[in-house]
Design goal:
This protein has 557 residues and is α/β, with parallel strands linked by helices. It is built from 16 helices and 27 strands. α1 packs across α3, α5 (126-135) packs across α6 and α11 (293-305) crosses α12. The protein is globular and about 70 Å long.
Length: 557
């Protein structure tokens, strides 16, 4: 392996593929996965289940489902397909698919074949796809119809990739048809021996500082994510999990792992419109829904406007709403619990480097601490350190560090970057945090996002949380802009709700509730871009507005 093994503490686990075997044995004919694509909803007011019995358009079914037995067989067929193409244990198999019924069987099939699964972001450009395939030494790739154009651009420039498999109709000439070939493969488990210390998956970072880093996780990380999620939210076999975020990201899949552990059904919803979320939760009897901040805001806004009426949906079984992937405004959760008073609420903190959810965890019993990310999660340790790597005093701001069985093995083929963030088994997250008198951790901001203005440290999240309290504000991002006198000034990019208008003077008046040094010096009313996992794209905002600021400074000179 190209990087040194890190010391792992905690619990010993079995490979996660064995959980699929167990579910197929215990619940063979029960539904495991449902795929819903609301874009193809018929105009008539029939249920999705009724529609699924009709003849859908070729290749575009509105609702599909598979049982645990079918899930297990599909995974085995793909594993055997890979093995017939010469795959060796430890080879890398890239997955470039939109959320679908094929995604998870393909993922587990790769693992069962002894491969390292490499999920790719569906937003990647052709050159980013090529970079990631090269970086991870991928020898095989499976992709869907949305990516034909991008693959055409690079298919003759990825020499390490020996086999391309295509999922869908009308297979391009440069690939092999997954649909056709898998039907000839055995549905028996190939019985490739796996251990907790075998490489399991490579996930890519968000790529906020250039091309993304390749994050290598062992099988123990995958299993620990499942154990952690189930310990935090106590999923039962009867729970139904609504999955909306992209499966290439650790967050969505690892939260599903908690339901996977107990053989609970999952619903893959291909769309984020509030009415689709509520309808899916209602008709599929979903009890657990993981949302991102903007989606939760959209649901509340549509309810407030009267565009959707809760009495039109059956939601009494919905017991848990939890949010992760980015700081959660306390005002949002207070609004949510007013509208859904019977819901449990939770938030989880995690990174791709710490296998997604739960290294820090609030807990449903701690709703009085809304705003905090919580305490150390199941099987995890945390500490907050200063620049000298020593723990800071309670109440002081420092860098959050985590340690546990879910910490990555390394950045693949990047020893320098690995050594920068892994120290004595601790992962230095790059997030600034503080611990209150009760031991709860509050996320202050990304270390690189801290704004230093006139010698004072400004933490954008604190300013954003304040501005979001205004009824007219849909979203906000605070970034630093260059300033000749102060070094940097805080600029707030504010996205208003469609039905509201606002002037700079009105927002400045509202911000007088902040200490003077925290008030934004510049206000910009514009859209706030977020990536598919809900994180604000601050590098993109800086490239837009910092460039403009520098030009303005040159003109003034």
């Amino acid at each position: 392996m190209p990087c040194a093994s890190q010391e792992k503490e905690g619990i010993s686990f079995m490979p996660i593929t064995e959980v699929l075997t167990k579910n197929a044995r215990l619940y063979p004919d029960e539904v495991a996965l449902v795929e819903i694509n609301p874009s193809f909803e018929p105009e008539s007011r029939i249920t999705w289940r009724e529609y699924s019995l009709m003849q859908p358009q070729p290749g575009e079914p509105f609702r599909r489902e598979i049982t645990w037995k079918e899930f297990d067989k599909k995974a085995n067929r793909f594993a055997n397909l890979l093995l017939t193409r010469g795959l060796k244990k430890g080879d890398k198999v890239a997955i470039l698919l939109m959320n679908s019924l094929e995604w998870l069987p393909v993922y587990f099939g790769a693992l069962r074949a002894g491969a390292v699964a490499v999920p790719l972001n569906y937003r990647y450009t052709a050159e980013e796809i090529k970079y990631c395939l090269d970086k991870a030494d991928c020898t095989m790739l499976i992709f869907g119809p949305e990516f034909i154009g991008r693959m055409e651009e690079i298919c003759d420039r990825i020499p390490k990739v020996q086999h391309l498999f295509y999922v869908g109709e009308d297979c391009p000439t440069f690939a092999d048809s997954y649909n056709q070939m898998i039907s000839f493969c055995s549905s028996r488990d190939p019985q490739i021996p796996l251990t907790d210390d075998d490489p399991g998956a490579i996930y890519y970072s968000s790529g906020t500082t250039g091309f993304p880093k390749a994050i290598l996780h062992l099988h123990r990380s995958l299993t620990h994510a499942m154990e952690t999620e189930q310990a935090h939210h106590q999923q039962t076999h009867e729970d139904v999990f609504l999955c909306i975020p992209p499966l290439y990201h650790t967050g969505a899949k690892m939260h599903w792992f908690g339901s996977f552990m107990v053989g609970g059904k999952a619903v893959l919803l291909k769309g984020t419109k509030p009415e689709w979320v509520l309808k899916a939760a209602s008709e599929e009897k979903c009890s657990i829904v993981w949302l991102l901040v903007p989606w939760a805001q959209d649901v509340l806004d549509m309810i407030d406007r009267g565009d959707v009426k809760l009495e039109d949906y059956q939601l009494s079984q919905w017991r848990l709403m939890h949010i992760g992937a980015q700081p959660v405004p306390p005002s949002l959760i207070k609004r949510w619990l007013q509208v859904f008073p019977h819901h449990q609420y939770d938030t989880n903190y995690g990174l791709s480097e710490s296998i997604g959810p739960g290294c820090v965890h609030l807990g449903v019993e701690n709703v009085h601490k809304v705003g905090a990310i919580g305490k150390a999660g199941y099987g995890w340790q945390v500490k907050i350190v200063g620049d000298d790597h020593q723990p800071v005093a309670r109440g002081d701001v420092g860098e959050l560090c985590v340690k546990g069985p879910g910490v990555m093995e390394c950045y693949y083929k990047d020893e320098k970057s690995t050594n920068e963030v892994l120290k004595d088994g601790w992962l230095y997250t790059g997030d600034m945090a503080m611990e209150d008198e009760d031991g709860f951790i509050f996320l202050v901001d990304r270390k690189k996002d801290v704004i230093i203005t006139g010698g004072e440290n400004l933490y954008p999240v604190q300013i954003e949380n304040y501005i979001r309290k205004h009824d007219a504000v849909k979203d906000v991002a605070v970034i630093g802009l260059p300033d000749a006198r102060l070094g940097e000034i805080a600029a707030a990019i504010i996205e208003l709700k469609p039905e509201y208008e606002m002037t700079e003077e009105e927002m400045n008046d509202f911000c007088t509730g902040l200490p003077r040094y925290k008030r934004p010096r510049k206000l910009i009313f514009a859209d706030v871009p977020r990536n598919p996992t809900g994180k604000i794209e601050k590098p993109r905002l800086r490239s837009i507005y910092c460039g403009e600021s520098l030009v303005a400074q040159q003109i003034e000179k």
